[in-house]
Amino acid sequence: MLDSIYALILAGGSGERFWPLSRRARPKQLLSLVSDKTLLEQTLARLEGLVPNERILVLTNAEQESAVRKLLGNFPKENIVAEPAKRDTAAAVALGTGWVVARDHAATMLVLPADHVISNQVAFQETLALAADAAEETGELVTIGIKPTWACPGYGYIEQGTPVRLRKRSDAVHRVLRFREKPNLDLAESFLRKGNFRWNAGMFVWSVPTVLREFNRQAPELADFISQLRAPKNFEKALRERFSKLPRISFDYAIMEKADRVLVVEASFDWDDIGSWRAVANYFEKDNQGNAANCAITALDSSHNIIFEEGGTTIALLGVHDLIVVRTKDALLVCHRHEAEKIKNLIGKLPPEVQ
Fold first, then answer.
1. Cα-trace Rg, the chain
2. In angstroms, what CA-CA distances link 54 with 4, 17, 144, 229?
3. Model confidence over 9-24: pLDDT tens digits?
């Protein structure tokens, strides 16, 4: 366990892509999609032995707070904080930074999303430890880059430059040339051909003095919010009165893309952000017709369907292909698997009680 290291877990989200299993009060990170544990529980479990629970802040929102607290019954209650309004990731990171600064103004800080699938805990912790070493030794912002496995147009990319020599090792640490927004398919394929692009997974590591310097330089309104949070006995008051007035902007855009000294550490672990039912299906059992399901199904003349059943109902397929069928106790989704990205467009048209 590294001394004086804190972790901010970003556990908000809208719960749209996995309807009907997900809802506004039950987003992706609160679902058990690929194991019997939720993605949030898996995220916390990956930090065991690296960061103790008392130095982890789980940041959620008011709509999901009760579900998070119920799920994490043994987690320190004061370490679960709900944002009173939706203000994107720059405000969320500022809130987490203020929470850490009030406890240790010289700490090293990890920022991790709560909704990723990572199975190799040892490699995950080794990568974070290397990133923490890089952050402490160089005084720079550090991001984790994922080596692309395909030309995905749905991810942001990091263009990495020359290696950076550290006292311990330098083979996996590079300078960031620039961040690239989600590209079209042709541009994504050119990134893969060049070989020096990594997926931006939204995982960051830095020393508190470094990130405070960047907030002060690039986002003074957020820096002022942090200073209010760190004042003695002022955290709850500042959160209640100031947070909802903060600018709605992503941390990447507000800070990372404008910083002049950023490093990228290449992940040595497996990674999947499972952004749709099609991605989750990769973790299900498949039959000889390519049907993927989390339960036993009966299928005749049916192929390449994705089935998720929450309550033990028998599912039978006859003469259907390329469907997604998801059944919960109060809703049923049937859609073409190639329309999975449009599921979130359904939400506003549904009755409020099932949104």
1. 21
2. 11, 32, 24, 18
3. 999 877 788 999 999 8
Q: Which two tokens stand for residue 129?
A: 């430890």
User: How many structural domains is the chain composed of?
Assistant: 2
Token duo for residue 107? 């700490």
Domain assignment present for residue 272? The answer is no
Residue ending a domain, among 225, 246, 266, is 266
Segments forming the whole domain that contains residue 113: 5-266
Q: How far apart are CA 204 and CA 132, in angstroms?
A: 10
Q: Is 60 exceeded by the pLDDT of residue 291? A: yes
CA-CA distance, 71 to 45, in Å (whole number)?
13
Q: How far is CA 167 from CA 23, 106, 134, 163, in A?
A: 47, 21, 9, 13
pLDDT at 170: 67
pLDDT at 2: 65
Same domain, 224 and 350: no
Residues 6+ apart with CB under 8 A from 99: 8, 57, 81, 229, 235
Alpha-carbon torsion angle 273, 278, 281, 282, nearest 10: -60
How far is the first Cα of the chain from the last one, in angstroms, to the nearest whole number? 41
Query: Does residue 20 have a cis peptide bond before it, meaning omega lies within 30 degrees of 0?
Result: yes
